[in-house]
Amino acid sequence: MNYALLDRGDRLSRELSKKFQTLASARGFTVNEKSPDIVLSIGGDGTLLQAFHRFKEQIEEVAFIGIHTGHLGFYADWKKDELSELLDLMVTSQPGRVQYPLLHIDITTRTGTSEYLALNEFTLKSVDGTLVAALHINDEPFEMFRGDGIVISTPSGSTGYNKSLGGAVIHPFLEALQIAEIASINNRVYRTLGSSVILPKHHHCDIIPDPEEELFIGIDHLVMQMSDVQSITCRVSEKKVTFARYRPFPFWNRVREAFIGSGNH
Ligand code: NAP
């Protein structure tokens, strides 16, 4: 099996990465950074986000596995003391292939349109503080937003930034995107729904900011500063991310363990 490995860069992740490589080569696995079948991340969910962005051009050819150095994560659902168990399963069994929806983002400026893909979410904020932007859903004006920002998340990203904003947790088998507000200001001129909105596949939303506004644009953990943005379109991507599943770990169990605690029921 060909694999690529990315670690968070801290001491523990680097040590685990070396250990994994030793155990994997003893089992006949080959490191292949260019066209791997499996991409492993060692660190946390944030490390899997980095791995996703490193291999997003090959997203239809690779399957991801995440190993967490601390608690169990949402993407990183193997623990640091389970390396041998994971490798043995990789030798002896065929994994299930679980696919999650992604968010497609088109950002149009005067010079053209750039495409982006997010595993967790797209975030829009103004560099100067208050963001003012029109939000359209399926080409119809929906609301005029004024506030700290807008977060549009995937179902698997719904447990990230979206959840801190009071958005709903969505099972990743639902092909949807969720629009959540960051501290909207509501008065007679600017009125927003106030709750998060969930759009199905084949719907889209456009955000039309003031082109003079300097914006912070976040695609998962990556942040860029852009000016002259004419419009931003978000929809559920045609592409999906694939995770190699060697054992079941239901999404709702992950939600319970992360936010409620397994003993709390
Ligand atoms: P970070 O600020 O270092 O860590 C953000 C935290 O979010 C980490 O604990 C990370 O888990 C966790 N996380 C990442 N994806 C998640 C998911 N799908 N469900 C639940 N938790 C998740 O940033 P980072 O590690 O580079 O991750 C970037 C992500 O941080 C963004 O995509 C966004 O979702 C999230 N974020 C959250 C807030 C907020 O809640 N106020 C603000 C900004 C960004 P690990 O510890 O396992 O890596």
In a few lines, what is going on in this structure?
This protein has 265 residues and is an alpha+beta fold.
Q: How many distinct domains?
A: 2
Which regions are unreliable across 5 or more consecutive residues at pLDDT < 50? none
Look at the structure and give the CATH class of the largest domain: Mainly Beta
Described by strand count, sense and barrel closure, the largest sheet is:
11 strands, antiparallel
Bound molecules: NADP nicotinamide-adenine-dinucleotide phosphate
* CATH architecture group name of the largest domain: Sandwich
Separate helix tally: 5
| Proportion of beta-strand residues | 35-45%
Terminal-residue CA separation: 41 Å
- Classification by helices and strands: alpha+beta
Helix content: 10-25%
Please write the string of helix (H) and strand (E) elements: EHEEHEEHEEEEEHEEEEEEH
